[in-house]
Write a structure and sequence with these properties.
Elements (H helix, E strand, L loop, with lengths): L2 H18 E8 L7 E7 L6 E5 L17 H6 L3 E6 L8 H16 L1 H4 L6 E6 L1 H12 L8 E5 L12 H8 L6 H6 L14 E6 L11 H10 L4 E6 L15 H14 L8 E7 L1 H4 L6 H4 L1 H9 L3 E7 L17 H8 L4 E5 L7 H4 L5 H12 L2 H10 L11 E5 L13 H19 L2 E3 L1 H4 L16 H16 L1
Parallel strand pairs: 3-4, 3-5, 5-6, 6-7, 7-8, 9-10, 9-11, 11-12, 12-13
Antiparallel strand pairs: 1-2, 2-4
Helix pairs in contact: 3-5, 12-19, 15-17
Length: 479
């Protein structure tokens, strides 16, 4: 492109940014100023925010067309934008990771001042910055994890044989020789069902620097297999590194596609009642394609409406028993459910506990159930003591807890035992509920006549069964 024309384009872009941006400033992310965050706040904030992560192979930062150049368009959509000029790894990958995580924390902590919904903060990474954005999306703790992810021609694999060699070497350093670390930071392997945020991937078919099939497509595949929301826009040409540059042949189409994707994402309403659905595969949505959209928690969200914010923290195969074969309370989902700070918790565990290898620890079921309840509501320990003395109970502190009995097991698939569920597990649940004054949703009874809404395994509800669960639980929550 002619140098004068390019300069004119940049001047026009700068004028456009000034017209759409209410305030621009820079914050130091480290005491020495080696990591900074450039902030662009819009005139008319929509509440949405994006943290930008430039590329550069982890050896430099391409922070114009893969950074600040996006500010005008984003601010024009009412989106606050923050470009993190992170420290390069130099043998220590925790540097760029911690810089981006700190940027996200600052944005959320400053949400009220900057006109941002703290639950509508996304991340947008380019190339190696796309890898870093995917690391934050899959590895970060709940408070630093973004609400949505935008990946431009991302490096995903850390296997240099199928990826960008220097991104792999610069990020991992000597750990490039460790196959476990290579696998872990090849982020298609770190995608978690329900927990990894929705994503969109933007690439060109003729990318010669970062192979699309072994990187972006792999992340999309992992997300789709997990049932997580993910979209992908692949343009015929453009090679690598087009970013927000106006020279990209499909620039206008890309902005339209990305804009429509962003508009389609509905953030939770500020002040919405938070509902955490805790459970095993029945909560997780086993056997239901795209369970993030069609499992019972997603249908519960639709049923309850925008005044509620429902999150699915179900994990297949998990037990209430801490000595079960797959204890729920040792899962990331359990930690996330607590950090979610729910107002309402739906606990639906017990089905897998009935298996012989798990129910051998039957004497511990009550204790483990009480541990979960008291972790969510420590105040109930004192409430139970006062209740036993028949004194006035204290005002509830913490979420309202609904304890669900398991739905009937029509078949003994995977050695799940209906007799143990009905005669041993449910009585314990009911006794514990009485002790702590919890509401019980008796799904075992309410779902008893719905065998036609089950999968062929006789354990899991199908799509209609998921709707039935959502209807029952919504009615109980609204009472």
């Amino acid at each position: 492109m002619n140098r004068k024309i390019y300069t004119l384009l940049l001047l026009l872009l700068a004028a456009a940014v000034q017209a759409k941006t209410a305030r621009t400033f820079t914050l130091n992310l480290t005491d020495d100023g080696k990591a900074q965050m450039v902030c662009f706040l819009p005139d008319a904030p929509s509440g949405k925010a994006i943290v930008g992560v430039p590329g550069g192979g982890y050896s430099m930062l391409s922070n114009t067309h893969e950074g600040t150049q996006a500010s005008g368009w984003l601010n024009d959509q009412g989106i606050a934008y923050f470009v993190v000029n992170y420290r390069l790894p130099d043998g220590d990958r925790t540097k760029p990771i911690s810089d981006v995580e700190k940027g996200i924390r600052i944005v959320r902590d400053s949400a009220d001042v900057w006109g941002i919904n703290p639950h509508d903060v996304g991340i947008m990474g380019f190339s190696a910055g796309g890898h870093l954005a995917s690391v934050i999306s899959t590895h970060a703790a709940f408070d630093e994890r973004p609400d949505f992810t935008i990946l431009f021609y991302p490096v995903i694999s850390m296997d240099e044989r199928v990826s960008h060699v220097w991104s792999c070497r610069n990020f991992l350093g000597e750990d490039q020789k460790n196959p476990d670390i290579v696998r872990d930071f090849s982020t298609q392997n770190a995608v978690r069902r329900h927990l990894t945020p929705p994503a969109v991937i933007i690439s060109a078919n003729d990318d010669r620097l970062v192979p699309l099939v072994t990187n972006g497509v792999q992340y999309y595949t992992a997300m789709r297999r997990a049932g997580n929301e993910c979209s992908m826009f692949i343009y015929p040409t453009g090679d690598h590194g087009f970013g927000f540059g106006p020279w990209f042949k499909y620039h206008d189409q890309m902005l339209t596609d990305l804009g429509n994707w962003l508009k389609a994402r509905q953030a939770p309403k500020p002040g919405a009642i938070r509902v955490a659905c805790i459970g095993n595969s029945i909560t997780d949505g086993h056997g239901i394609d795209m369970a993030t959209a069609y499992g019972y928690p997603a249908l519960l969200q639709k049923k309850l409406g925008s005044d509620y914010w429902v999150r699915n923290f179900g994990v297949s195969g998990r037990t209430m028993l801490n000595r079960g074969d797959q204890p729920y309370m040792k899962e990331v989902a359990w930690a996330d459910a607590q950090r979610f700070k729910p107002d309402v918790v739906i606990i639906k565990l017990g089905t897998n506990d009935s298996k012989p290898q798990n129910w051998q620890y039957a004497s511990e079921f009550r204790e483990d159930l009480e541990q979960m309840i008291l972790t969510l509501r420590p105040d109930l320990a004192q409430t139970a003591k006062k209740k036993s003395k028949k004194t006035k109970t204290a005002t509830p502190v913490g979420p309202q807890i609904f304890l669900c009995t398991p739905i009937p097991a029509i078949k003994s698939t995977w050695d799940i035992n209906e007799a143990v569920i009905a005669n041993e597990i449910i009585p314990i649940q009911q006794e514990v509920a009485r002790k702590y004054g919890l509401k019980v949703i008796d799904l075992h009874t309410l779902f008893a006549g719905d065998s036609d809404k089950m999968l062929s395994d006789g354990i899991h509800p199908d799509g209609k069964g998921a709707q039935r669960l959502a209807d029952i639980i919504a009615e109980e929550i609204r009472r």
